[in-house]
Amino acid sequence: MTHIRTFFEQFVRCCQETNILHEYMTAEEMRLAFRGRCPFRVYIPNKPAKDGIKILALVDARSFYIYNVEVYPGKQPSGPYRSNSAFSVVERLIMTISKTHRNLTVDDWFTSHELMMDLLTEHRLTATGTFHRNKRCIPPAFLKTGKELGNSIFGFQKNISVVSYAS
């Protein structure tokens, strides 16, 4: 990765300088199918193309242009990219849009109560995400099965809304 880091960082800079951001952004986890030799190639058995390079990106939801991107190298070197946790990845991706009052949509790999509160309080960004059923922060009433199809349960707390939808 160090061999192409200069080129890659220049690409990210160009993405940030040439894109006009809208109010809605998404944090995306993408994979480029790749079967060659590469120390940071990942294997995900439940995907059609099982081998590939994992890319984490901040994307404008209206124009679909990448604004910030990071290649997932597996084990990170020491420094600012040391942690690969979902929370740390989102923190690095959104640094350039912090305190801009935008909305960030994330998928279930990124979503956590801690992240949602941090985005709101520290970065002044609202966020929308999907929680896995096994997250401890979900109230038990929202986990009950047997709801009629098409019904929803809503919950509200100071700065957070939660919806459980039966599909």
Question: What's the short story on this structure?
Answer:
The protein has 3 helices and 8 strands. By secondary structure, it is of the alpha/beta class. The strands form 2 sheets. Strands 1, 2, 3, 4, 5 and 6 form a 6-stranded mixed sheet that branches. Strands 7-8 form a two-stranded antiparallel ribbon.
How would you characterize the overall build of this protein?
This protein has 167 residues and is α/β, with parallel strands linked by helices. It has two domains: 5-100, no CATH class; 136-167, no CATH class. 19% of the residues lie in helices and 29% in strands. The chain contains three helices and eight strands. The strands form two sheets. Strands 1, 2, 3, 4, 5 and 6 form a six-stranded mixed sheet that branches. It has a two-stranded antiparallel sheet with strand order 7-8. A hairpin with a 7-residue loop joins strand 2 (41-43) and strand 3 (51-60). The radius of gyration is 18 Å and the shape is globular. This is PiggyBac transposable element-derived protein domain-containing protein.
Structural class: alpha/beta
Q: Number of DSSP strands?
A: 8
Shape: globular
N-to-C order of helices and strands: HEEEEHEHEEE
Organism: Eumeta variegata
Protein name: PiggyBac transposable element-derived protein domain-containing protein
Domain PiggyBac transposable element-derived protein: 2-164
